[in-house]
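ligand=alpha-methylisocitric acid
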Amino acid sequence: MGYTLTEKIIREHIVDGEPVKGTEIGLKIDQTLTQDATGTMAYLQFEAMGVDQVRTERSVAYIDHNTLQSGFENADDHRFIGSIAKKHGIWFSRPGNGICHQVHLERYGKPGKTLIGSDSHTPTGGGIGMFACGAGGLDVAVAMGGGAYYITMPQVVKINLTGKLNDWVSAKDVILKVLQILSVKGGIGKVMEYTGEGVKTLSVPERATITNMGAELGATTSIFPSDEITREFLKAQGREEDWVELKADDDAVYDAEVNIDLSELVPLAACPHSPDNVKTVEEIGNIKIDQVCIGSCTNSSLQDLLKVAHILKGKTVHPDVSLAIAPGSKQVYNMMAQCGALSDLIDAGARILECACGPCIGMGQSPNSNGISLRTFNRNFEGRSGTRDGQIYLVSPETAAASAIAGVFTDPRTLGAMPPYVMPERFYINDNMVVPPASPEDAKNVEVLRGPNIKPFPVNTPLAESIEAEVTLKVGDNITTDHIMPAGAKILPLRSNIPAISQHCFEVCDETFPKRALEAGKSIVVGGVNYGQGSSREHAALAPLYLGVKAIICKSFARIHRQNLINNGILPLEFVNGDDYEKIEQGDKLVIANIREVIKNGSDIIVKNETKGIDIPVKCELSERGKGMILAGGLLNYTKQNG
Ligand code: MIC
Ligand code: SF4
């Protein structure tokens, strides 16, 4: 029996456990990446581990999220990350060089290697055949120190692509289709492996759009084979030597299969407020729009922007629409300038932003009240744009550009023949914005520069014998980390300061939560299905920890967030019977007796709702290592105990 590509890479990197589906495995990690919004915590945690030099093949620290410097905080954090990177053997991608995933794909990713990043869209690397996962900052810190990265051995879903995309239909429409079929929780515990004849018709940037937004399925990761197209891409990046051929065996066995005929796809859009709320652009109709944003790690490649430039050429953005465009990297930006396509964007009236995440994470360009904004991004969670009642639709670059001119939602197929664009044979390469680390000898003299905004991160105490606490918040299904720990230009500068940022915890759901939680001292949060979906931000665990949250009880968890809770010693409990969710109300007092003992022995867990006088069975499936972390009060304590 043959192996899937996923199994092949896992088998080459497994250092702990057996490749048995559903069990925990530890993987050797070849490369890591961090970005600045999660990076400061990751590097503080790395420092706490006392390792001098990273033990990976390549670790890169990117500055791309917190680039709006409206106070000293972000600039201080950039300096901190730059200096700590230099000291510990990490390459430093300076602000202006581009979005971590785009730059990593262009310059550093290698087929067949493992990559983890403190950002949920790290699976972008799957576009060139990497096994690339988003992880919490602490997991990345451990991997930089040479430790294994633990995941549940995933199921592998075959996404069989046939046919060829029609004009005006693009990779974004493929992943929106997959989201429509599988939903935002359809990928949990699974890897999406793309195969079939249709794969050959997709370029590397197109594949990367698909693997990038696989994060929205909740998948462990997504991966494409490494073939001649991958070789051409790496050659054009001057790195042909990094290419290896990789594919699944012909007789590989998959756990499930999804068939997509690319020729049947039409332009799609994810409607507010969820990436799986997908309709055809035609179905949505010509509704009036207020804003268009093109960019983000999903759709900011040279190929994307060349298409946009061709659509905008000689036209003017509709008077009622604001169009913002952020190229994904300095390479993209520069090549757009060199070939003159940038001039077409400027001429049409686009507002050109620096190569960074920008509006995708609410760093500027928030839409007007109730504004309809079309974005080529990957998330349209409520409030994420910075405008509470903003209506965000996720679309392809083609739909975005066509609509920006028309002023109404526009199916790009109505524009007639697609203007031709030619991809260059060679990318323009200048890595001058990536600072190499100091040599190990010089590293000793590198001073780490810390601004006053950087505060120590909270470390949990060992798990108590029993938990008695009030439910300070009850929320519904699909709560995102943007609900738990919002981002945006005002809050992101506090990422290095947990006491300050925790004042915004859950403010999208209930502004009184931080105050009430602190007053309660210890408390419990109750949620529905797919709790914690979205980002990898550890702050969605660190802030509740700081506010005294001891346990989350919900119907099910998203993968990275559950791991972040365990890493920080917060109990992730799931209802045995989903309907029991109804038996707890906000304000109820819960008792979880002998929880230390119960976790140690793996016995059944009963939550007593003292207010209602009922017992509720819950479960907490943990590996031995997971148990150790929960008992110790998190990964750092556990590592100290276990040497
Ligand atoms: C996101 O897209 O939500 C982010 C911002 O990139 C996050 C990371 C963060 O919150 O810093 C992610 O995707 O992990
Ligand atoms: Fe940045 Fe947006 Fe990509 Fe997150 S999803 S890494 S905020 S561009």
